Amino acid sequence: MAGSDGTAPATARRTALRVTGLSWPDSGASVLEPVTFDVVAGEVVTLVAPDRTTVVALLLLLSGIAVAGTGTIELDGVDVTAEPAYQRVRRGLVRSYPLRTLWVGMTVEDHVRVAVQAAQEAAWRPWRGDPAHQAVTDHLLARTGLAGRATTPSSHLSPDEQKRLEVAIMLADNPSIVLLDDPLTGVPHDEAEKLIALIRSLRDEDGRTVLMTAPPECADRLEPLSDRAVALRCRHPEHGSAT
Fold it and tell me: Which pTM does this prediction carry?
């Protein structure tokens, strides 16, 4: 585990995220049974489930895209259960999105610049960019090891590079809590070194709180990065419970 004693640093013991009895809205089938867990600031936690549907449901609830059926979500002690996704982003909770959401005709730099301008609530002007936005874009490209790929179309990136681009886009919002959706899935073992180092640095260098989802087959790859894991257990194909 990342911490020498399996815990987050002693200087970061406040609760950054508290999830209590959180479940999917009642729709005739229980996608997610009540989930309860706390994450302290600076901790790295992996969410593991045999059923991808259960993980997706939890991500949708945490990020505010879906409304919870029961339970509460607190960020730094504030109940955000009823808040929409954009408000949670403003509070510092940001999630990554899968590669398929990247616009294949755009370059790496374009993707990051759009994210930076969106974070600053500015309209995208590709030929009249704000120097301040460009400076942040350049910083994020360097931060994620993609400066040398700035003019490359996103469709030409390797799986490792695409995942790092996802992180760069997410960091445009300067989150304090990051939700990484299956960060190592699809990345070959021999290409994951830079991505693993980047994920580790989100906590060790930036001081961010990190939650990662993983299917069982990738959980062992995330174990060295994690302080602990939360196991999401499915009772049968359409029902899940968490411990």
Answer: 0.84
Would you tell me how many other CB atoms lie within 10 Å of the CB of residue 131?
7
Select from 134, 151, 174 the last residue of a domain.
174
4 — phi, psi (to 5°)?
A: -65, -25
Gap between the Cα atoms of 196 and 208, Å rounded: 15
Tell me, what amino acid is at 177?
I
pLDDT tens digit string along 142-158?
999 999 999 999 889 99
Residues 153 and 186 occupy one common structural domain: no
Q: Could you give phi then psi for residue 212, rounded to 5 degrees?
A: -125, 140
Examine the domain organization and report whether 185 and 68 are in the same domain. Answer: yes
Closest listed residue to residue 16, CA positions, set 35, 38, 48, 36: 38
- Here the tokens at position 180 are 């990484």
Give the total number of structural domains in the chain. Answer: 2
Q: What are the tokens at 208?
A: 């961010």
Q: Which of 191, 51, 166, 184 is nearest to 115 (CA)?
A: 166
Alpha carbon distance 206, 21 (integer Å): 30
- Its sign, for the CA torsion 44, 36, 66, 78, is negative
Q: How far apart are CA 36 and CA 71, in angstroms?
A: 9
165 and 140 in contact (C-beta within 8 Å)? no
Question: Hey, what are 21's tokens?
Answer: 């009895």
Tens of pLDDT, residues 79-103: 999 999 999 999 999 998 876 556 7
DSSP character at residue 18: E
